[in-house]
Amino acid sequence: RLRTLRQCVAGDGSVKLGPGARNQCENAMTALLSTPLRGCQCKRGMKREKNCLSIYWSLHQSVLHGLSLVESFPYEAEERGSDYVRLASIASEVTAVNRCLDATKACNIDETCQKLRTEYVSACIQPSARSGPCNRPKCSKALRKFFDRVPPDYTHELLFCPCTDTACAERRRQTVVPACSYEDKDKPNCLAQLRVCKADYVCRSRWTQFQYDCQPGEPSAGGCQQENYGACLLAYTGLIGSTITPNYLDNSTLDVGPWCSCAASGNQREQCGDFLAFFHDNHLPPLDDVTSAPLRKKHVKVKKIVNSSRFQ
Q: CA torsion sign, 84 to 87 to 93 to 96?
């Protein structure tokens, strides 16, 4: 039944299944929604993540009209939490002048953080005979591994550390080694990047999770519709190493976004602008606000943006 549904989703069911293809597709969907597959989710960074997500999208991405799919999102809620108290204790042992520098020193104290950070930095600065300055696919893979396997109390300090000068901000911006993983000679069209992302199970899932966890909700206490800072930041870091990798746009603001442009969007310019607005107008709070949010529920200033369902 799952094999049948996958053929339907691929759009070639009528060829492979014959004249009764539509009925077979509908029957397969109905049967599968009565099994434990209904509502199943995957774990971010799991060993067979792509295979798990392919099953998820087979159930949630049908090209057949009239099929009612269960509303859900790809990933299970993260069980790990950010132990900011422990991190503060570690950071207190090093110089407290530059929080971003302190975050690097704290990472070097932890064996896993230091090992995986060294791996991705090495992969992202090593010249490639075929790819020029670096091997971007290898760099992106190493970055995903780092942000998936290292506890967020380290990764968040590295990526969201507060800065008061440009030197600190540049260190923060360089966290993802943008010369390899982020920037390019020319900015591609954002919608073209999004199409490439949606064609990959992992990237599509990370984008969907980001939309769900980081959907702004101004009436809510904290600015996030889901009212979960940690989940939003995890979803944000989940995009790093993908086609739509986000990063800081400059060293003078906290504005973030993917490396792309809407210049050649034609009659889809508004849709392209809405995609960029999900990053540009959805301000991630500084780590100081994030760490204190559970204690004093500090409000986050979030602008009203287009409903994320337009990008599904």
A: negative
Which pLDDT tens digit goes with each residue over 219-268? 555 566 666 778 888 899 999 999 999 999 988 888 899 999 998 777 88
Position 178, amino acid: P
pTM: 0.76
Write out the CATH class of domain 99-280: mainly alpha
CA neighbor of 254 nearest in space, from 284, 276, 289: 284
CB 45 within 8 A of CB 79: no
| Contacts (Cβ under 8 Å, ≥6 apart) of 269 | 262
Break the chain into its structural domains and give their ranges.
Answer: 1-62, 99-280
pLDDT per residue over 125-166, tens digit each? 988 767 677 899 999 999 999 999 999 989 998 998 888 888
The set of long-range contacts for 167-173, using a CB threshold of 8 Å and a minimum separation of 24, is 167/98, 168/98, 168/99, 168/100, 168/101, 169/248, 169/251, 169/252, 170/251, 171/98, 171/100, 171/101, 171/104, 172/100, 172/248, 173/247, 173/248, 173/250, 173/251
DSSP 8-state code for residue 167: H
3-state secondary structure (DSSP) of residue 152: helix
CA distance 284 to 193: 22
Burial of 28: CB neighbours in 10 Å, binned 0-12, 13-18, 19+? buried
**Integer angstrom CA distances of residue 220 from 95, 202, 240, 294:** 37, 30, 27, 14
Buried b (16+ CB within 10 A) or exposed e, 33-72: eeeebeeebbebeeeebeebbbbbbbbbebeeeeeeeeee
- The beta strands (E) that lie in the chain are given as 246-248, 256-258
Distance, C-alpha 273 to centroid of its chain: 19
Q: How many CB atoms lie within 10 A of CB 251?
A: 16
Separation of alpha carbons 168 and 228, rounded Å: 27
- Residues listed for the chain: 312
